[in-house]
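Bug report (template v2)

What were you trying to do?
Predict the complex of my protein with 6-O-phosphono-alpha-D-glucopyranose.

What happened?
Run completed; filing so the output is reviewed.

Input:
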Amino acid sequence: MGEPLVVVSNRGPVGFRRAEDGTLSSVRGAGGLVTALRPLVDRGDVTWVASAMGDVEQELAGEGPREEISAAGTPFRLRLVSHDPETYRLFYGVVANPALWFVQHGLWELKRDPAADLTVPWRDGYAAANRALADAAIAELDLRPGAALYVHDYHLYLVPSHVRSARPEARIAFFVHIPWVGPDDWAVLPSAIGRAVHEGLLACDSVGFHTERWRSAFVAACDALLGRGEDAERVSHANPIAVDTNEFDELAASEAVRARRQELASERPEILVLRVDRTDPSKNAVRGFEAFGRLLERHPELQGRVVLLALLDPSRQEIPEYVDYRTATVAAAASVNRTFGRPGWEPVRLELRDDFPASIAAYTEYDVLLINPVMDGLNLVAKEAPLVNERDGVLVLSRRAGAFAELGEWALGVDPLDVDEQADALARAIALPAEERRVRLAAIQARVRAHDLAAWADRELAELDARTR
Ligand code: G6P
């Protein structure tokens, strides 16, 4: 049994549904953070504090903490925190996404944003929701003397400062799953917000980032906004999150994935280009489709032989910017199909749904994997998909994804804003000699296996221990 740990994240490791007959069932929580962190519960003695999302979870939150069992059979405690709907809307729908997410992914539009004054949403939404989650975390810490607190991501920058002032001796670690940006980028937000964000993280004993690039931006921003660059240097480290390789091997061999593979194999084109993302503007699907169109225009010999399969999970559809981007994504795919498609060949196959087994089946089958985010903290698909790929698939990867620092050497790097370069990289990937494809994929797989999720978690806990001993 590991040391007691209280984990806090906005989305919990499981979601809940109630069937018409009233039966309650739990479903795997969606999104990169939860996929990566779920196995933490198998280290034992874990309490997870998360926001109640939707009616079923609101109702469950009222019943108090729950005993849950992980997929691997380990019990853990789940404490759902309920927020007033308007508080949650301001917290999630106005401040966390899109304001913080957009600022930290270079998506802020200076000529238009901020579209509204953020002061009230910050106070009545973000700060209020953070306080509610921090209060729940404090209550859980009080039940487990000596437990460490492990807080995650951009929804919760104010949790550490609340906990620190209520329990000065608490051991607090934080992990930032998204990029960090420099002081000029933070300056687009009211300065009180920028300062509170950085002060929040400096209330931690340990703060982890996926890459050195994001970590040094954090140090620079702490220095410029608070004059506390040295404190930031002392608490921070880079430790890219990783894949639970055992879980992925098992999933790839599972019945559900095998069935999806058969479906895919029966209709696969000669060359399969794949992308798997949430429909998030940061993922840059529109430019990806434009690049694919340009590839077909420049290489008519590929027409009829290649298909871009885009498996996109609809994300954050309560936020207008996300709805607009999803519409633009559908239009960009349709435009390529209108220009180049012909009977019997649809160049872009776009599927908008959350279907994890289908994604893994496609991971095993791709020839080229296109990952072109404008900015991305890490991008777990860049690790998961090569791990189980069986066709010596080539990775085309944005230089602005955190994963590029680890895998760039074996990928074809692209600038996410440069559509021409992406079209050229796709052509190069398709033409790469078989031996080179094999060597590149094998190197990525070796790297992903060598630094797996267990190694990542060990390092995180060791960083906290080293700073609180
Ligand atoms: C990214 C973020 C996570 C978040 C996930 C899904 O991976 O880094 O923190 O959980 O997206 O986002 P959602 O808004 O659906 O919880």
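What did the reviewer find?
The first helix runs from residue 32 to 37. The two ends are 20 Å apart (CA to CA).
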